[in-house]
Amino acid sequence: MRIYLDHNATTPVRDEVVRAMTETLEDVYGNPSSGHAEGGLARARVETAREQVAQCLGAMPSWVYFTAGASEANNAVLMGLLEQDRGGLVTSNVEHPSVDEPATCLEEAGVGVTRVPVDGEGLLDPEEVLEAAGPGTSLVSLIWANNETGVVQPMEEIAEGLRSRGIRLHVDATQALGKWPLDLSRVPVDYLSCSAHKLGGPKGTGCLLAREGAPIYPFIRGGPQERRMRGGTENVAGIVGFGRACALASDELSYRMVEYARLRDRLWEGLCAKVGEVRRNGSADHVLPNTLNVQFLDTPGEVLLQALDLEGVAVSAGAACHSGSISPSHVLTAMGLSPEQARSSLRLSIGHGVDTGQIDAAIGLFGELVGRIRRAGSA
Ligand SMILES: Cc1ncc(COP(=O)(O)O)c(C=O)c1O
After folding, report:
1. Are residues 363 and 265 in the same domain?
2. How far apart are CA 11 and CA 295, in angstroms?
């Protein structure tokens, strides 16, 4: 039996979501833009999903624009700056590439970009963000919960500070949705990106949320869909699945926060006891309940990842493979880890279907395999 501890990469589609999508694919074949009954049925399904997504985020349905995932939503918000006054962008040095690369693109087009650094725990200082965001800033774009470390930024404080200065805030909430309370009726963010496949929905579906009054520009031209912002016939089944996954997340959030944290803490304590010479990367207090980023001293992460995979455990490395060479994670090095420390780090992330027995079995395997790799390295 496989033990899947890579739920931040993607998490299995929930049974309830599969059923809702299957029923849609089988029975709801109309085009939501058509004026007949078949079209109307498809339109109704899309609008129900819009309400479910909005409700999960404490937002209004009219703020939701469905996309093909969070990368598209992030690109849409950032590249939209080119349509505006080309004022500056403030972001951080631990962003997902779907924010970081558009930011570089904007920089090349002459937009001033400031990347605020995080501290050793992976946290932003709200004061530093507010200082970086001056009168010439058009947008601040920040990741709410980091995909590699799970570190959750003090977004309430940042959002309040920016709101009082009249500066717009975009948050990438892809990892936070379904694992952390997100309530836009309380936190004044202007734009939010998220993705269905991180919370039990299908891949290739997500949304951009733009609060009433926050300017957005068409990011796919050529059709009336999504209030002319994103042309193209809607992915009706995908959107239905996203809505269902959000409804489940709304119902289960408190349970998930307690249960995932219990399993994550058990895993961490087990690794400390059975493996030893481990360090936790990132804040242990401001972190998603499901994520653990661990440095295994004197143990190359890629070697450990492959050994675990062969034994049936799926995890993720603190490094990305670019054309054959392994570059250390920019998130971990931004927190002050050396390239070698980053290369000996793994991300372990928990989600639906993981149980105590699996955690205990994984701890046993970590103990055995890390011991073997360390002995081989010192031989
Ligand atoms: C923080 C973050 N932002 C954006 C994305 C991209 O999401 P999608 O796969 O829906 O494009 C991911 C996915 O890994 C992510 O973790």
Report:
1. yes
2. 23
Task: State whether 80 and 168 are in the same domain.
Answer: yes
Query: Last residue of a domain, which of 196, 217, 249?
Result: 249
Asked if 197 and 93 sit in the same domain, the reply is yes
The owner of tokens 């970009």 is 113
Q: Is the CB of 238 under 6 A from ligand 1?
A: no
Domain that holds residue 308: 3-10+252-378
Task: Give the pLDDT confidence score for residue 322 in this predicted structure.
Answer: 45
Q: Which of 192, 218, 249 is the last residue of a domain?
A: 249
321 is catalytic: yes
Question: Is the domain of 32 the same as that of 158?
Answer: yes
Q: Is residue 67 in contact with ligand 1, taking CB distance under 6 Å?
A: no
Number of H helices, E strands in the chain: 11, 15
User: Could you list the mean pLDDT of each consecutive 10-residue stretch along the chain, which spans 379 residues?
Assistant: 96 98 98 98 98 98 98 96 85 98 96 97 98 94 98 98 97 98 98 98 98 94 96 98 98 98 98 97 98 97 97 84 67 97 97 98 98 90
Sequence-distant (6+) residues with CB within 8 A of 263 are 290, 350, 354, 355, 356, 359
At 327 the pLDDT is: 87
Judge contact between 264 and 290, C-beta under 8 A: yes
257 and 299 assigned to the same domain: yes
Expressed in angstroms and rounded, the spacing between residue 179 Cα and the centre of ligand 1 is 15
For the CA of 69, the closest atom of ligand 1 is 10
Closest CA to 97 of 153, 162, 148: 148
Q: What pLDDT sits at residue 37?
A: 98
pLDDT in tens, 39-62: 999 999 999 999 999 999 999 999
How many domains would you assign to the chain?
2
Looking at the fold, whether 183 and 308 belong to one and the same domain comes out as no
* Spatial CB neighbours of 254, under 8 Å, sequence gap ≥ 6: none
CA distance 162 to 177: 22
